[in-house]
Amino acid sequence: MPWILLSAAILLEVAGITSMKLSRGFSEPLPSIAVPVFYVLSAAAVILVLKRLDLSVTYAIWSGVGTALAALIGVAYFREPLSLFKLASLALVVLGVVGLSLAAKETH
Question: Least enclosed by CB within 10 Å: which of 11, 20, 28, 46?
């Protein structure tokens, strides 16, 4: 259950940052309203996850996967440039998240 909640927290956080971009500096009403809603829901999910998983693992996975997903959305949807350096850096983030996930399973 904590892993499902963590996944939900990540998706909600990414929805929040994507809404922030879509709000165009909070000039678009619907995405502007969505930003705090998504962030509050994401924080609530993380709070529940922290009851069951270590802080170090939870935060690293939440922020790492969120960062990677946001970068991919930036490239795919917002047409941001994708360089080899950016791609390699995202791969390192993903490898770090996988390593932390394995470490968490090893200790539980």
Answer: 28
Quick one: 108 exposed, middle or buried, by C-beta within 10 A (0-12, 13-18, 19+)? exposed
pLDDT, one tens digit per residue, over 35-93 is 999 999 999 999 999 999 999 889 888 998 999 999 999 999 999 999 999 999 999 98
**One-letter identity of residue 69:** L
Joined together, the tokens standing for residue 4 give: 């499902």
Give dist(CA 59, CA 40) in Å, integer: 16
Which residues, 6 or more positions from 11, have their beta carbon under 8 angstroms from its beta carbon? Answer: 69
Give the list of residues 6+ apart from residue 4 with CB closer than 8 angstroms, or none: none
Look up the pTM and report it.
0.87
Which residue reads 């490239």 in tokens? 75
Burial class of residue 89 in the structure, from the number of CB atoms within 10 Å of its CB (0-12 exposed, 13-18 middle, 19+ buried): middle
Instruction: Report CA dihedral (85, 23, 19, 38) to the nearest 10 degrees.
Output: 140
